[in-house]
Amino acid sequence: MSRTISNLPMLGAVLLTLAAGPALAQQGGVSDGTLGVVLSEWSMGFNQTSTADGDLRVRVSNAGQAPHNLTIESSGGRHYVETTLLPPGASRTLEVDLPDGTYEVYCNVPGHRKFGMEATLTVGGAAETEPESGGGGTGGGGYY
Question: Can you give the pLDDT at residue 132?
Fold first, then answer.
């Protein structure tokens, strides 16, 4: 008596892998000194990520259907990155050197952040030191 082994389970696994391919390609985060940000409705490609070194190459791409932009803001409100609007399909690569701390990474198009286009980036192990506001001749912070 001979048995026939069906290839349907294997075919299903291959098709599932192929279907997941574009979704996997749209994931962001930090890898090898590069922060990947994949903008789409309503995601940044990651929710939170961390890196030991803040000297980063930032690769941002718009995989969505609407124009988006990218802002990286410190916990004290300093904007380290602010891109112009990126049309669908556009990308940009830039360099940034972030001090240790926690940063909000978000799309600054009105309404997009509240719909989920935000993520958290942590650099190093310590919180970023922000100057006190007011007094001391710093003009309320002195970062800009």
Answer: 30
